[in-house]
Amino acid sequence: MTKPDKLRDRQLVELRNAYERGASIRTLAVSTGRSYGSVHSMLRESGVAMRSRGGPNHRTRPT
Q1: Are the beta carbons of 25 and 43 closer than 8 angstroms?
Q2: Ranges for the Helix-turn-helix domain (predicted)?
Q3: What is the b/e burial string over 23-47, where b = at least 16 CB atoms within 10 angstroms of the residue's CB?
Q4: Average pLDDT for residues 17-39, to the nearest whole number?
Q5: What pLDDT is stored for residue 15 in this prediction?
């Protein structure tokens, strides 16, 4: 495994751990300087169980 591969693997583990502790994708994107899409892709690559959409700005649609 090359050095960049080890760095990426470490980043995947760190992102996964933070996400599993409750950090949002948006928060992880800001803290790492990566895009939302990049963080989302890395989390999926890590095999983490993705949470449903939600958060403080999520509202249900009126019926």
Answers
A1: yes
A2: 8-57
A3: ebbeebbeeeebeeeebbebbeebe
A4: 96
A5: 97
